[in-house]
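[Automated response] Your request has been received and processed.

Submitted sequence:
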Amino acid sequence: MVTTSSRDVILETARYIFRKFGFAKTSIGDIAIAARKGRRTIYTYFESKEDIYKAVIEKEVDVLRTKLVEVIFTESKAMEKLKAYMITRMMTINELANYYEALRNDYLQDFKIIENIRQDFDNQEISMISEILTEGVENNEFEIENNNLTAKAIVNALKGFEIPFFIEKVDKDIKGQLNSLIDILFNGILKR
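Generated structure:
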């Protein structure tokens, strides 16, 4: 029999509450009531609402990281890995409501904890993409002068697409838009 710890119950409940009401409108009391825990129990595991939110975001980032690592090991060719990585990344971010909320809301942009989580994840992404690019160069799929710089450019391009995809909801055809971006990344814009 698998038992769920009080901390896990609090986190899952907080994830749901933050998703439903947002960070600003959620209180420790809301989380305690929904989790059927006393405020004292909440404070046993977390120092503040911000601490809970940080843990929720970290958990969602772990979900994203796990899916991305999984897709890297699923595909055999570097080009297919990179395509699958990009599509999986964007589709998963769309599903992770609290991570998306943290990206979207101005009042959370000053929240250093979220900024630090984002910077750590950016560095991990650059590393993962750089490994894919290195593999592609070694297998003669790609011709790249600087894998790390190219990986940074890809991560920045993906981050740039987050706003129109998830915040402005400009176009629901995420896969189509990503395939266009991928085509530009792989083939460039030069006339041949």
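Summary generated for your ticket: Residues 1-46 form a domain with the Arc Repressor Mutant, subunit A fold (CATH 1.10.10.60). The radius of gyration is 19 Å.
If you did not submit this request, please reply to this message.
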